[in-house]
Design brief:
The structure holds two protein chains of two kinds.
Chain A: E1 14-23, E2 26-36, E3 41-45, H1 52-60, E4 67-72, E5 75-76, E6 84-87, H2 99-109, H3 114-127, H4 143-156, E7 161-165, H5 173-188, E8 193-197, H6 201-207, E9 210-215, E10 220-226, H7 238-253, H8 262-276
Parallel strand pairs in A: 3-8, 3-9, 6-7, 7-8
Antiparallel strand pairs in A: 1-2, 1-4, 4-5, 9-10
Chain B: H1 5-8, H2 42-76, H3 88-97, H4 111-142, H5 144-157, H6 166-173, H7 177-201, H8 205-213, H9 218-254, H10 261-270, H11 274-302
Classes of the chains: A alpha/beta, B mainly alpha.
The complex binds adenosine-5'-triphosphate and magnesium ion (MG).
The site of adenosine-5'-triphosphate (ATP) has 11 residues of chain A, from strand 2 and helix 1.
Chain lengths: 277, 309
């Protein structure tokens, strides 16, 4: 996955220009403009339902914006392309295919013969220590291993852009830490641009070059924070700790108002402040 | 498919519950460490599954021997009237020797002939029904207009008793195999289409997105993603449909299609040959059971990945 097709290509820039997206009556995002530099690691955080996944869907070409434009690598997005890889929390792997065939699936779609595709897939899995599990089906793998296989496949396509929607949210704390480092290692060997959505502030601070804060419904960008600290990072560092406080303050007032009535919210917040007194 | 999802929720309640297949197991294994993996169990699973099959067969045999013994006892003590309920000691030899051809004229049929008639009808009607239901189900999922127009029709056809089609079938194609096949088809087509739509609809949105983003063409989306993903649900419904098909062919044969196993029972009734009725019932039970087991075997083969653990 390190060889880059011989010729050097320009890192993939992503641009959202006054993007609004409606699903029927529901306005998911409103007038969002964002520039994601090529080769950077951007993390989107924000309350539930503010349109984060919607943004990824637009960049992936799985949805069209209702208004505005989305450019990936200088071209307006028109449908999914192999230049863009996707990673979700679940359902990345097809349960009816072995780990090897799951990775080979991508190659097969490019018209590579089955044998050759499987050979390449085996190689990639062996490279990351998953050689012994190549013939296991996803149900036989742990959650972390499933995500690792999915990551291997995503990078196997040598994508210019990797879109990740809470990819590690279902993993336990320890595994999540390992996966974050694993992701950084793999990503740094490529020129891929990464946009990741997460609810985990530690994860955001640990990974991001740039944090994009969304706020509630309809979704808009309320703040963009650049984090110019070399990796690997220590989260108790002063600068990161101060950003963390800002994020917490932001999210506090962005509670998902969609999900609570005002009375219910008052009750819960009342309980919390009574606890502190 | 994307746009159809909210709409499809409407129909969830009308579908038999097959939720056990809908991804509930994907979440189980998330807490394991990266370096840790389940020990391969396939080596130990196989013999134990074999021995379980044997013990299941043993109990089945035992249960039926018990019933036969009680029956025999009942007939011997004349608690059960042997003229109406002939005991196994009479029925089994009668079955093994093969009942003499029964009926008159064109309706005359041998035991083996009746079995072959019924089996071929159910096989053809069943396969046609499953195939048509998957096709129509796929079209309904694929085209919004069809979902609006065809789906309600299919849903209202599904609960119509297959026997209700018999007059129509006989008037259209006459008595005989085509009418029986038609009845079998109608027995499963509606409910199987409704299930197929539900199965296709419940393929996780994320899985479809991943498939598309991996460059899968829209034909391959069906053959390589949607159908395999829906296969567990489809298979469960196909097995259930078999029972409906089996009932339907027999009911049809009894109610006017004058040949096959169902008709054999009617003949037994008309000639007051209760042994023949008994033989008919036993044959129907044994064949139905055997075919269901065969379908289970096919399911294991087809859905091999679900039986790896
Ligand atoms: N296909 C769709 N049809 C109708 N409404 C949709 C669809 N997709 C998203 N929405 C709505 O758009 C809004 C934004 O959804 P989105 O999934 O982008 O939120 P999110 O920020 O990813 O939330 P979460 O953190 O919970 O994942 C939500 O109110 C959601 O209900
Ligand atoms: Mg989301």
């Amino acid at each position: 996955m390190t060889e880059m097709n011989g010729k050097k290509r320009r890192p993939t820039q992503v641009v959202f220009e006054n993007v609004s997206k409606r699903f029927g009556e529901k306005q998911a995002t409103k007038d969002v403009s964002l520039k994601v530099p090529g080769g950077s690691f951007t993390v989107i955080i924000g309350p539930s339902g503010c349109g984060k996944s919607t943004m990824l869907g637009l960049a992936a070409g799985l949805d069209e914006p209702s208004e505005g434009y989305v450019f990936v690598g200088g071209r307006e997005v028109a449908g999914p392309t192999e230049n863009v890889a996707l990673l979700f929390q679940h359902y990345n792997l097809f349960p009816w295919l072995s780990a090897c065939d799951n990775v080979a699936f991508a190659f097969r779609n490019r018209g590579m013969p089955r044998k050759e595709a499987r050979r390449r897939a085996m190689e990639l899995l062996a490279n990351v220590g998953l050689g012994d599990y190549a013939d296991k089906v996803p149900d036989e793998l742990s959650g972390g291993m499933k995500q690792r296989v999915a990551l291997v496949r995503a990078f196997a396509m040598q994508p210019g852009l990797l879109l990740m929607d809470e990819p590690f949210a279902a993993l336990d704390h320890q595994t999540r830490r390992i996966m974050q480092n694993y992701l950084l290692m793999t990503w740094q060997a490529t020129d891929a641009t990464v946009i990741m959505v997460t609810h985990d502030l530690d994860e955001a601070l640990y990974l991001a070059d740039r944090l994009v804060l969304f706020s509630g419904s309809p979704g808009t960008i309320s703040e963009v924070i650049d984090i110019d600290i070399p990796r690997p990072r220590k989260l108790d560092e002063d600068f990161l700790a101060s950003i963390r406080q800002r994020l917490e303050a932001h999210l506090e007032k962005e509670v998902a108002y969609d999900e609570f009535t005002e009375a219910e919210l008052a009750k819960v917040m009342g309980f919390a402040s009574a606890g502190q007194a | 498919m994307t746009g159809n999802r909210p709409e499809s929720k409407l129909f969830e309640n009308s579908i038999p519950n097959t939720a056990e297949h809908n991804g509930s197991k994907t979440d189980k294994s998330t807490s394991a460490e990266v370096s840790q993996v389940r020990t391969p169990r396939s080596a130990t699973v196989k013999p134990s599954r074999m021995s379980m099959a044997w013990s299941e067969a043993g109990w089945l045999l035992f249960a039926w021997l018990l019933i036969a013994a009680l029956w025999e006892l009942g007939a011997y003590t004349e608690v059960l009237n042997p003229r109406i309920l002939p005991p196994p000691s009479e029925t089994i030899p009668y079955l093994l020797q093969g009942p003499a051809p029964a009926g008159i004229g064109a309706q005359r049929t041998t035991f083996i002939g009746a079995i072959l008639d019924t089996l071929s009808r159910v096989a053809i009607g069943y396969l046609l029904g499953i195939f048509a239901a998957m096709l129509v189900g796929a079209l309904i999922v694929r085209y919004k207009a069809l979902r609006r127009v065809c789906f309600p029709i299919v849903q209202t056809l599904a609960p119509v008793s297959p026997v209700a089609w018999i007059p129509f079938a006989i008037a259209l194609v006459g008595i005989g195999s085509p009418a029986a096949i038609f009845v079998v088809f109608m027995a499963i087509f509606g409910s199987m289409t409704v299930s197929a739509v539900a199965a296709f609809d419940s393929v996780p949105e994320e899985m479809l997105k991943v498939g598309r983003s991996l460059g899968t063409s829209s034909t391959h989306m069906w053959t390589r993603v949607i159908i395999p993903a829906a296969a567990p649900d489809l298979m469960v419904m196909a097995r259930m449909s078999f029972f409906a098909a089996w009932m339907a062919v027999l009911a049809g044969e009894m109610a006017g299609i004058n040949s096959g196993l169902g008709y054999l029972i009617i003949l037994g009734q008309q000639m007051y040959n209760m042994k023949l009725v008994m033989v008919g019932i036993i044959t129907i039970g044994v064949l139905g059971f055997a075919i269901d087991r065969l379908l289970l075997l096919i399911q294991r083969r087809l859905l091999w990945w679900e039986y790896r653990r």
